Structure formats: structure tokens, C-alpha cells
């Protein structure tokens, strides 16, 4: 087959080189964006008188027919045409004749692929934003159901202080809320139209990049043609945002895995989001959460791949940049797939409130409250800390919880401890007394839910 760029060449490409060079196997998923960019470009060429109105109409009609053919599965892309851009042009020319060859006037594949990627990412960012908001809505609803569900909070995976399941869930809501903000900020930098930059130096034709940008829904036009075709910051930034989303999902997944174990027994996942063992009949494995945790590494790899591809590239376009697409597509697909599974997994899990409460009452999670109690009675906190440490050591030796120690035992351990101590170290009070902004008391958590909901509604 004659190459669309073959005029300079006297010999044929190696078949090995053709396979190595071709990207149609993966960039064919950009056909909608490529046709959208071509429709806008053809309209601009006709409006500017660069091609005739009749040619513009013929090209646009042919592109729309081609889009319908592709959507209907009537098109087979040709690997020898290298990429989606040349496939579309070749198919268009076969459909409408010589007018199809005029479509590429005043543009290059360099600005063409940049606009395709930006259009693709604009749509994907919007979809991921929607999935994150669904997850946040689920977290808000679960938090409202469990404002009074007491559980241990942990540091170093050791029981630390009592909190509520609502408070714990809202910590993840805060993370995913920041992810929504990051996506919004990423979208702003994606929203720049590079079409009109040509290969790197623009064009001598009297084009109208602003009209093309408006047709395609971009709010800005690239201000430097060399940067327009060689910039992949927006791909890197999206992959970084995607990696952060996955990191948050992975942290949450780790807790789901722990909580669903017999050792914790805090939750039970739905059968719909669990699997069994091929040899151990009793097993119910949290595979959905484990896969999310595992797939996080893929997205980290996608980010590192694109960063590494770009790190040594001089201006302007280089063929290395063809390698950005598979990493980008994988990051998009992985984040979307994980969010689509994670939200219903949470929605359908059963919470064992009794087991959570029992765990909160073990491990001396009210020790800090005992130290605070002493501090309110004039004992310097550092001294109170030491006294309570010795009290815990004594209670462990006696096999008792702090609230099970007698008044006589307390008085012997520290004369500052009075009979009102039991009220101050009850697990319920340990939670309800922490009413400060961001604390675990039910009213504080309700306030956090309201603030995050309002913030999301405005963004």
C-alpha cells in the first residue's frame, strides 16, 4: 500500500517496521475524537475559504457516514495505515473521492493526536468524576447510618482510641473529596485546544483556531505551537491523579480485607463481591477489595511509564510519544473499573456493630481519656500519662478493663482519681465528648457530612 507520507521514500518499509510502527491496535479507540476533530477542522477550512463550501459539506457528510459505519461494526481498520488518523483519512477518501485528501490541509498528525487525547480525557475525567461522586454519596449514606456505631480507631494497626464507623468512613470521604478537586483542576489544564499548531510551527493558511476550539468545546487555545504538539503534561497529571485515587481505594481495600477477616469480624461482604476457594469449601474471600488493592500497582506503573517516556525528549514531537496511549488507556480503564466495583461492594456489606463495639472496649482505648481526666484535676499531663501507663500495666496483670478497676484500686494507684472517673472513661463518652470540628462525636460527623455535601454540590 502507498503511504500517505511516502513521496519522500524510494523503497518500501520493512514488514517488521510496519508492525513495530503501527499504533492502530490501540489508538483505534480514539475514532470518535478523531472524527470530531476532523469535522471541526473541515468546517473551519470551508468557513475560511481554504476549501470550497461544497468540499467541506462532502467531507463532513463522509465523516458522519464513516462514524456510523464504525459504530455499526462495518469497518475494519488497516494496520498498514499505521494509526487512527491515517485510517480515517484513507477510509474517507475511499468513500468520497479526492475531496477526502483535502481534509489534512493546515494540520498535522501531531496536533491531531493532541486534540484527540484531550477530547478523550475530557470525557473520561467527567465519567470518573461522576463515579467518585457516587462513591461519596454512598459514604455519606453509610456514615449517617452509623453515627453511633462505636469501633476502635487504630494507629500502627494497634487499637488506639474509640471512634465511630461514621467517623472512619468520613476520613475516606475527605480523601475522595480531594480527588474530585484534583480531577477538576486536571480538567482545567486538559481544556486547551492544540489544533492549528500543525507539526510544530503552525501553518501559513489563514486558519481560525478559535472557531475550531469553540466547535470542540474547548475554553482555551494553545499559545505556543511547539508546546501544543509536544505537551503531555495533561496525560501525566491525569495519571498522577488516577494514581492518587487508586492509592485511596487501596488503603480502603486493605481495611475491608482486614475487617472481613475472622480475626476482626467487623463486616461481611456480599456474596456478589466475594469469591470462594477451589480447595477449601469454607472460604469466602474479599477478592473485589484485593483486586482493587492489586490494580493500584498498574496505575502507578502507568504514571511512571509516561514520566519516563517524556523525561528526555527535546522539542517538539517525537515518536516516543506514541507510547503514552496504552499507559493512559490502562489508567483510565483501571480507575473506572475499580470505582464501578467498589461502590456497590460498600453498599451491600453487612456491619457487625456488636463486634465493633466489643473491640472498642478492649485494648484500653479509653486510656487517653483517663489521662485527660487527671489533667482536668490539676495533674500535669506528662505526669498523668505516666500514671495511666502504670494503671494500664496493673489492669493487664489483673485481667481487667480500666472501667472494671474498683475505686479502691484507683485510689491506691493515684489519689487524684475520684468516683466520677467511670463516667469520664465510658466508651460512649470517650466518643461523644470529642465534639470539636472534625471529631468523632455524632454532631461533629454530621457537620462534616453537610460541609462535604455542600462543597461537592458547588463544584
What is this entry, summarized?
This protein is mainly alpha-helical and 459 residues long. It has 19 helices and six strands.
Task: Record keyword descriptors for this entry.
459 residues; mainly alpha; Fumarase C, Chain B, domain 1; Ribonucleotide Reductase Protein R1, domain 1; 3 domains; two-stranded parallel ribbon; 6 strands
Classify the beta-strand content into a percent band.
under 5%
Biggest sheet, spatial arrangement of strands: 1-2
Q: What is the residue-mean pLDDT, rounded to a whole number?
A: 95
Distance between the termini: 51 Å
CATH topology of the largest domain: Fumarase C, Chain A, domain 2
Structural class: mainly alpha
Unreliable stretches covering 5 or more consecutive residues: none
Q: Which outline best applies?
A: elongated
CATH class of the largest domain, anyone? Answer: Mainly Alpha
**What is the CA-based Rg, rounded?**
31 Å
Amino acid at each position: 500500500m502507498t503511504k500517505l507520507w511516502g513521496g519522500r521514500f524510494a523503497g518500501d518499509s520493512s514488514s517488521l517496521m510496519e508492525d513495530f510502527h503501527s499504533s492502530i491496535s490501540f489508538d483505534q479507540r480514539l475514532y470518535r475524537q478523531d472524527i470530531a476533530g476532523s469535522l471541526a477542522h473541515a468546517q473551519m477550512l470551508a468557513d475560511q475559504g481554504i476549501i470550497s463550501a461544497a468540499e467541506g459539506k462532502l467531507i463532513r457528510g463522509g465523516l458522519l457516514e464513516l462514524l456510523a459505519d464504525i459504530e455499526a461494526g462495518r469497518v475494519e481498520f488497516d494496520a498498514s495505515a499505521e494509526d487512527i488518523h491515517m485510517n480515517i483519512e484513507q477510509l474517507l477518501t475511499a468513500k468520497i473521492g479526492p475531496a477526502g485528501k483535502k481534509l489534512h490541509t493546515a494540520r498535522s498528525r501531531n496536533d491531531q493526536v493532541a486534540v484527540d487525547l484531550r477530547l478523550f480525557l475530557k470525557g473520561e475525567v467527567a465519567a470518573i468524576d461522576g463515579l467518585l461522586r457516587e462513591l461519596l454519596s454512598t459514604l455519606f449514606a453509610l456514615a449517617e447510618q452509623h453515627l453511633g456505631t462505636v469501633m476502635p480507631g487504630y494507629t500502627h494497626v494497634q487499637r488506639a482510641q474509640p471512634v465511630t464507623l461514621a467517623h472512619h468512613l468520613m476520613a475516606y470521604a475527605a480523601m475522595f473529596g480531594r480527588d474530585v478537586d484534583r480531577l477538576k483542576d486536571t480538567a482545567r489544564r486538559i481544556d486547551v485546544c492544540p489544533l492549528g499548531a500543525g507539526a510544530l510551527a503552525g501553518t501559513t493558511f489563514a486558519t481560525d483556531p478559535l472557531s475550531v476550539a469553540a466547535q470542540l468545546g474547548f475554553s482555551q487555545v494553545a499559545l505556543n505551537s511547539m508546546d501544543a504538539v509536544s505537551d503531555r503534561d495533561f496525560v501525566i497529571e491525569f495519571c498522577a491523579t488516577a494514581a492518587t485515587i487508586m492509592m485511596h481505594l487501596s488503603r480502603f481495600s486493605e481495611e475491608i480485607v482486614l475487617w472481613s477477616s475472622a480475626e476482626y469480624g467487623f463486616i461481611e461482604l456480599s456474596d456478589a463481591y466475594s469469591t470462594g476457594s477451589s480447595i477449601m469449601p469454607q472460604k469466602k474471600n474479599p477478592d473485589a477489595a484485593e483486586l482493587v488493592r492489586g490494580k493500584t500497582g498498574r496505575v502507578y506503573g502507568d504514571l511512571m511509564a509516561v514520566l519516563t517516556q517524556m523525561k528526555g525528549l527535546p522539542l517538539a514531537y517525537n515518536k516516543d510519544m506514541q507510547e503514552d496511549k496504552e499507559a493512559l488507556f490502562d489508567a483510565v480503564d483501571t480507575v473506572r473499573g475499580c470505582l464501578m466495583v467498589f461502590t456497590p461492594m460498600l453498599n451491600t456489606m453487612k456491619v457487625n456493630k456488636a463486634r465493633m463495639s466489643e473491640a472498642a472496649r478492649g485494648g484500653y482505648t479509653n486510656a487517653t481519656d483517663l489521662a485527660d481526666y487527671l489533667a482536668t484535676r490539676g495533674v500535669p499531663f506528662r505526669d498523668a500519662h505516666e500514671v495511666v501507663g502504670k494503671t494500664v500495666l496493673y489492669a493487664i496483670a489483673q485481667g481487667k478493663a480500666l472501667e472494671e478497676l474498683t475505686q479502691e484500686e484507683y485510689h491506691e494507684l493515684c489519689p487524684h482519681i475520684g468516683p466520677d472517673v467511670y463516667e469520664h472513661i465510658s466508651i460512649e463518652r470517650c466518643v461523644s465528648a470529642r465534639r470539636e470540628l472534625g471529631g468523632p462525636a455524632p454532631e461533629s460527623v454530621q457537620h462534616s457530612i453537610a460541609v462535604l455535601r455542600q462543597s461537592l454540590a458547588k463544584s
